[in-house]
Design goal:
about 35% helix; 5-stranded mixed β-sheet; Peroxisomal Thiolase, Chain A, domain 1; alpha+beta; 12 helices
């Protein structure tokens, strides 16, 4: 049933934006990077393929492409080209400017800036300071968020809190990562997953029933092994440059499905709604098996859960931001007015967060 919500101060999403680097790496190209061709077990992968005719006659690159798509749903991923001057902060600024344009706002009309990233080009200065300068408002206050793949949703929750409390009228929330710079190209399980990109949203004070419908839901617990990246300052002499490592397997997939559903449940309860009120679910695009598993668990009609990992890969927190921007711009089909959307995410740590947004 649809619950009527009384007018109240909330944070309306008035503009979204995204930026994807133009360089794209498909599975065939990926196999030639690092030592993946030498470390990839072609025989084991060939025997694991399901529903593929003539599997024994496939070349090693064809087996890798089909295996990668079967286990992740990814055919290609965006990346910042080697040797490029483009940085994570540049991508964030471009996504942020696109969101400001969509909202009809100038950079100097924004009160605060939150930047979610785990891969800034500089640890110091703070990414928010760098992005603020790049969008043309160097005196804009803000901070960085490291909640891994849940960072954008945490940023939306923080923006809602700032606006509802009166601390800000308008907040720009940006997420961006260049994970291809951190991937270990000797580890096929990790290398196949990640891509680069950025997304953003402008949130503004509103007294309508549109916007973020109540506080976000958040949860977490400590588990280092599923995803970790050693801090740069904790290297000893002779250590390799820290690289991102991701554990896979059915346990990780199931945990992500269950936890994103649970934190989504919590956010809906806070909003006074249930899943029957939801038009779209935008989950963190970690793996197609995860987003498809979430769709099955929620038992929502086809098309309610939005998928786009196939051409982008896992862009950490930016997957939710980029998918939201695509949805708003009609790239995933017609969007009713109003539309109630659940943003739900899980990231390394673990960190979990969800928010309900009406646009």
């Amino acid at each position: 049933m649809e619950t009527a919500l009384a007018a109240r101060v909330t944070a309306a999403v008035t503009g979204t934006g995204s930026y994807l680097p133009p360089d794209s790496i498909d599975n065939f190209q990926l196999l030639g990077m690092g030592t993946l061709r030498e470390s990839f077990d072609i025989g084991q992968a060939r025997s694991a393929l399901r529903g593929v005719e003539g599997v024994n006659g496939l070349s090693a690159p064809d087996v890798f492409d089909r295996w990668a798509y079967q286990v992740t749903g990814i055919r290609s991923r965006r990346r910042i080209p080697p040797g490029s001057d483009l940085t994570t902060e540049d991508m964030c600024a471009r996504a942020g400017l696109a969101a400001l344009e969509a909202a009809g706002r100038e950079p100097d009309e924004i009160d605060q800036l939150y930047v979610a990233t785990v891969s800034p080009s500089d640890e110091v200065p703070n990414s928010a300071c760098t992005v603020a300068t790049k969008i043309g408002n160097p005196r804009l206050g803000g901070f960085s968020i490291n909640a891994a793949c849940a960072g954008f949703v945490y940023g939306v929750g923080a923006a809602w809190s700032a606006i509802v409390s009166g601390m800000a009228e308008r907040v720009l929330v940006v997420s961006g990562d260049a994970l291809t710079r951190l991937v270990d190209y000797t580890d096929v399980r990790t290398a196949v997953l990640f891509g680069d990109g950025a997304g953003a949203a402008v949130l503004e004070r509103s007294e309508t029933d549109h916007g973020v419908l109540g506080p976000m839901a958040a949860s977490g617990w400590f588990a280092r092994d599923p995803l970790f990246l050693v801090g740069q300052s904790w290297r000893d002499d002779g250590d390799r440059i820290p690289l991102l490592h991701m554990e896979g397997g059915p346990r990780i997939v199931r945990n992500a499905i269950v936890k994103m559903a649970e934190v989504g449940d919590q956010a809906l309860r806070k909003a006074g709604l249930d899943w029957s009120d939801v038009d779209f679910v935008i989950p963190h695009q970690a793996n197609a098996r995860i987003t498809q598993g979430l769709e099955q668990r929620l038992e929502l009609p086809k098309g309610r859960v939005v998928h786009n990992i196939v051409d982008y890969g896992n862009m950490s927190a930016s997957t939710v931001a980029v998918t939201l921007d695509e949805l708003v711009r009609g790239k995933h089909g017609p969007v009713p007015e109003p539309a109630t959307i659940v943003l739900t995410s899980i990231g390394g740590g673990y960190t979990m967060a969800a928010a309900v947004v009406r646009i």
